[in-house]
Amino acid sequence: MYAYLGGIIRAADGIAESVGGVADHVHLLIGLRATHRLADVLRELKAVSSAWVHNEIGMHGFAWQEGYGAFTVSASQHEAVRHYIEQQAEHHLTRTFREEYLELLRRSGVKFDERYV
């Protein structure tokens, strides 16, 4: 799945620097052109990968969640983020996705209402 997601990003003329995750979520470190619109790229990523999972793997009940979280990353932090993505299995032995996501939001200074997370 991760390789397929990277291929979708490359087909959209983006750069898939790191793709990984665990059973209930995925992280992507991607480079996009200034002309890309994130919502369009992610809508295409979800649509194409969902069709692939349904048709090629046969998991007809598979569906992405409706929303997503996106954060910009400075060039100086790419290696740290790449490492973070590669260590997801170990990372989630001690923290849930929800705990992880709420911490990312807080550390990034994003205002949010926990009822909608």
What does this structure look like?
There is one protein chain. This protein has 117 residues and is α+β, with helices and mostly antiparallel strands. 46% of the residues lie in helices and 13% in strands. It is built from 5 helices and 2 strands. It has helices at 2-11, 38-57, 78-86, 88-91, 97-107, and strands at 15-22, 25-31. It has a two-stranded antiparallel ribbon with strand order 1-2. Strand 1 (15-22) and strand 2 (25-31) form a beta hairpin. Helix 1 (2-11) crosses helix 2. The protein is globular and about 35 Å long. The two termini are 25 Å apart. The mean pLDDT is 93.
Properties at a glance:
single chain, 5 helices, two-stranded antiparallel sheet, 117 residues, 2 strands, alpha+beta, 46% helix
Could you outline the blueprint of secondary structure elements for this entry?
Elements: H1 2-11, E1 15-22, E2 25-31, H2 38-57, H3 78-86, H4 88-91, H5 97-107
Antiparallel strand pairs: 1-2
Helix pairs in contact: 1-2
Instruction: Note the main sheet.
Output: 2 strands, antiparallel
Helix content: 40-55%
Distance between the termini: 25 Å
Total count of strands: 2
The secondary-structure element order is HEEHHHH
Average pLDDT reading: 93
Uncertain stretches = none
Number of helices: 5
Radius of gyration: 15 Å
Task: Please provide a brief summary of the model.
This protein is an alpha+beta fold. Helices cover 46% and strands 13% of the residues.
